Amino acid sequence: MDSKHSEPSPLESLPVELVRLILSALPDVISLQTAILSSPTFYRPFVRAQSAITSHVLLQQIDATVLPDAVLAVSASRLQTCDETDRLELVREFSRKSLGDKAMLPKTWPLQEAVAIAKLHVYVDGFAHKFAAATLTEPPFAPAESSPMPTQQESLRIHRALYRFETYRHLFRVAPDALRLDSLQLFFRHYSTFENEQLACIHDFFARAVLLSLIGKVSDGTFETTINSPLVQNLLLLGLEGLHNAIYRVPGNLFADLPPGADLFRPQSFLYAGLCYANDSEIHITLNEMSPQLQELHIRKPFFADPDSGPLEAWKWAYLEEMGMEFVFNRARRSLRRWGYVLWDRWRLDDIGVLEEPFEPW
């Protein structure tokens, strides 16, 4: 009896070099992981060039200027839970080595590390789109018939702020009062005031999204009285993946997909308190009273050297007559944070003419 042999698939007959080119052209790391696990045809060529292929795909998915922030967030997620004293030391060490020294990123990435970064990036990218769609339709922007699109630099800026949110969440997820009181030294001092105000914009965006899921409609008065509630702050503590699941996965039921044992009413002020501590209580003069040298000292060098002046100029415009003890997360600037004022390019700010008149706090 003649034995029948199955014909090899066209993929199996491809040269190894061509298979590697196909893998390198995949749009994201999760697709790469799926491909190599689906068939030996992909797995075998991948193994001998995995670092090069993985690194290429990762940098296609995540911009190189955002990657340091992504790595920080993933690294912070791996900090161990321990008692207060040890936790404080862990956070100090992380702040010194990862934030202060800005360790050089590797030139190549193992698949496991790239997958961890790529999984988080899915939520970062999704929330970046939602943030832009929500804020770019708020006054002073004109209502648009279709969703306005951020520029690439604006989108990357939002990505960095979202990664910063996730990093903070992991560093201070079990923060006792001692950690919070020291948060200026541990975390916020490594960022400029306008970068910390960007994080404040993200905080307010998430707080409003949580409240919308809870009560359907949020007036300014309701937002003002509930933003620091234990319920809202405990929900923000869930992080990007948890917030996505809680807000969007089960419409109308914010509590359906929470982790087991989650206590949403325990005393907690999380990022709200942290942003208050981002200010220096010893600065008793206003921004416009400071010399250029003093301004540079208290605004601080940004963690990311933004090539666009929009965020810095917007922040200076908003805080020109404010004392240094109120340079971040000021209540009178909440209306500005609603449209994400420190996250846009200078051309967009000039286009709406918002910087032409002095800011009038409410």
Q: Would you count the extended β strands for me? A: 0
- Span from first to last CA? 91 Å
Tell me the structural class.
Answer: mainly alpha
N to C succession of SSEs = HHHHHHHHHHHHHHHHHHH
Shape: globular
Task: Supply the number of helical segments.
Answer: 19
The stretches of 5 or more residues where confidence is low (pLDDT under 50) are none
Q: List the domain count as a whole number.
A: 2
- Mean pLDDT across every amino acid position: 87
Largest sheet: none
Give me the Rg, rounded.
23 Å
As a percent range, the share of strand residues is: under 5%
The percent of residues in helical segments reads 55-70%
Could you characterize the architecture of this molecule?
The chain has 362 residues and is mainly alpha-helical. It folds into 2 domains: 52 residues, no CATH class; 252 residues, no CATH class. Helix content is 57%, strand content 0%. α1 packs parallel to α4, α2 crosses α3 and α5 runs parallel beside α8. The longest helix has 25 residues. The chain is globular and about 80 Å long.
Defining key terms:
mainly alpha, 0% strand, 19 helices, 362 residues, globular, single chain, F-box domain-containing protein
